Amino acid sequence: GSVASQAAFPPLIHLLITAFGWRSTWVVLAIFVWGLLLLPSILFVRRSPESVNLLPDGKHHQLEPQSPQPGNREGDFTLVEATRTRSFWLLMFAGSSTSLISTALVFHHVSVMSSRGLDVVVAASALSVIAPGALLGTFLAGFLCDKFSNRYVLVMCQIILTFAMLLILVMDRTWQAILYGGLLGLAGGTLMTTTSVIWPNYYGREHLGAIRGVVTSGSVASAALGPLPFGLLFDVLNNYTLAVLIFLALPVACAIAAFIATPPPHASTAITKSLGRLPT
């Protein structure tokens, strides 16, 4: 859904701005958020499967009530407990740094393309395949997260992003620009699905809102910061090639961080009991 909206909204907003101006377009978008997003969320979104008498992760209702087990439900971590684990900070770093890189590349997209001798039409074409690439990435990551350890899928995301950045250094043809846009979207879609899965798998669902709130704040801050250092590097070096080479250290570091971010001990025990397996 989010990927489809990323593909549909830019041309829709462009049409609205062309027809009514940017001020009226903001009003239309505000009405859209209130009417089609906020109200359905209040009416239909539920906090957990248990709130509608369902069980997650393929669990089955017990015929006889079981005595409560000591400790948190499903080995859930509180926010404070989560922040005391090494994997919390490693995963947060991997996700936040990826947001920083992606935003920097998209923000400077046209300028990067121009520096490689590619015109605005090619830049727009490359940008248009980011959303389809992200859509593919969401489905691919969903399949892989069921088959392999989530941290390995997160490593794969960083490798894809690294290849996309390396492609910037050599691209001078249209097909290379299209491939670059597709890889950038594929990395983003893979990250989106994997991070949605890995946090509850590692830290449980009971306090997921608080945990993801802190993590998302870091990602948003990184995304907002991303274009600034990339632009400063260009201003100082007068060259996007060197800026990309410097930024390449981040996905490599993120891949290492994701690889060593093993599941926290008592979360591992809880997931093993509930799913019958836990890939590491």
Describe this structure in words.
It contains 14 helices and no strands. With 280 residues, the chain is mainly α. The chain has 2 domains: 43 residues; 201 residues, Growth Hormone, Chain: A (Up-down Bundle). Helix 4 runs antiparallel to helix 9, helix 4 packs across helix 11 and helix 11 packs across helix 12. The longest helix has 30 residues.
How does the SSE layout of this entry go?
Blueprint lengths: L1 H19 L1 H23 L34 H5 L2 H22 L1 H7 L4 H9 L1 H18 L2 H19 L5 H30 L4 H18 L1 H11 L2 H8 L1 H12 L4 H11 L5
Helix pairs in contact: 1-2, 1-7, 4-9, 4-10, 4-11, 4-13, 5-6, 6-9, 7-9, 8-9, 8-13, 11-12
Strand content: under 5%
What does the main sheet amount to? Answer: none
CATH class of the largest domain: Mainly Alpha
- Taking pLDDT < 50 over at least 5 consecutive residues as the criterion, the unreliable ranges are 63-72, 270-280
Q: Which outline best applies? A: globular
Predict the CATH topology of the largest domain: Growth Hormone, Chain: A
Separation of termini?
30 Å
| Element-by-element helix/strand order | HHHHHHHHHHHHHH
- Helix and strand content put the structural class at mainly alpha
Alpha plus pi helix count: 14
* CATH architectural grouping of the largest domain: Up-down Bundle
How many β-strand stretches? 0
